[in-house]
Automatic annotation (TrEMBL):
Pfam families: Lactamase_B, WHD_BLACT. It comes from the Bacteria. This is MBL fold metallo-hydrolase. Residues 30-199 form the Metallo-beta-lactamase domain. Signal peptide: none annotated. InterPro entries: LACTB2_WH, Metallo-B-lactamas, RibonucZ/Hydroxyglut_hydro, Sec-metab_biosynth-thioest, WH-like_DNA-bd_sf.
Length: 282
């Protein structure tokens, strides 16, 4: 995959991709920044503040007018390159609202970008004109409360809400399982042709894929209910039983997702907790 870093790939007319060199257990081969448009362009998810990636983005724009630098959310693998790119091009930063939370304990995924300062925040349904075509915001809270997807024609840029290689990390306090599930259902009802996520391959069967993600989360919920119904359990015990053979690098993230499920189940009156122990409600 090294040969693909900093190399512009045309995916279809008006949509191209640049891969940032920030591979990890949470980013797959790295963050995919997208260039949308032809004579005028927008950059979606400019990515981490890596000089070689920012240089590649400037080169890819190649004298065209950069209308907008658009961020799906403010994790540090998505938005930090926005300001340096804005400084170099004069383009406005448009997209998600600013959000930066300090982690309690070890982070389960990327930290927040505390320096992100948008020129314009998009609400659900707001749009930006790129060469006579609209890039429209689709609010999809869940992974983070400020997460947006961006629709361009019948293509949807899904950030971390739907990824082509892995399920999404949903970690409280900002990540919320009920919001995430509602956002998935919102996408299920759309008629997008293809998803372009920030990590992993394109999703060419969007409705079927989203139904699978919803089903997976519902099965995980049933599994958690069964485990806490057998006996009171803490989160590490649930993770050990629900994720056998899990990559140790992902244990913290799995614990975060289990907590997100438990908080949703608690809100619905299906589980109770006493200190660190969770049980099925009577």
């Amino acid at each position: 995959m090294d040969a693909l870093y900093a190399k512009l790939e045309t995916l279809e007319p008006g949509i191209a991709r640049l891969l940032a060199h920030n591979p990890s257990a949470f980013t797959y081969y790295g963050t995919q920044s997208y260039l949308v448009g032809e004579t005028e362009v927008a950059v979606i998810d400019p990515g981490p503040d890596l000089p070689e990636h920012i240089e590649a983005l400037v080169h890819a724009i190649a004298g065209r007018r950069l209308v907008a630098i658009m961020c799906t959310h403010t994790h540090r693998d998505h938005s930090p390159a926005a300001q340096p790119l804005a400084n170099l091009t004069g383009a406005p930063i448009i997209g998600c609202a600013p959000l930066a939370l300090e982690a309690v304990g070890p982070r389960a995924d990327a930290a927040f970008d505390g320096d992100y300062t948008p020129d314009r925040v998009l609400a659900d349904g707001d749009s930006v004109e790129i060469g006579g075509r609209s890039v429209r915001a689709v609010a999809t809270p869940g992974h983070t409360s400020n997460h947006l997807c961006f629709a361009y024609g019948d293509a949807l840029f899904t950030g971390d809400h739907v990824m082509g290689w892995s399920t999404t990390v949903v970690v409280p306090p900002d990540g919320e399982m009920a919001a995430y599930m509602a956002s998935l259902d919102k996408l299920r009802q759309r008629q997008d042709r293809v998803y372009y996520p920030a990590h992993g391959p394109a999703v060419t069967n969007p409705q079927q894929y989203v139904r699978g993600l919803l089903g997976h989360r519902m099965q995980r919920e049933k599994q958690i209910l069964r485990l806490v119904g057998e006996q009171p359990r803490d989160i590490p015990d649930i993770v050990a039983n629900a994720y056998p053979g899990l990559d140790p690098r992902l244990v913290t993230a799995a614990g975060g997702s289990v907590l997100a499920h438990l908080l949703d189940l608690e809100r619905r009156g299906l589980v109770v907790r006493e200190e660190q122990q969770w049980s099925k409600a009577a």
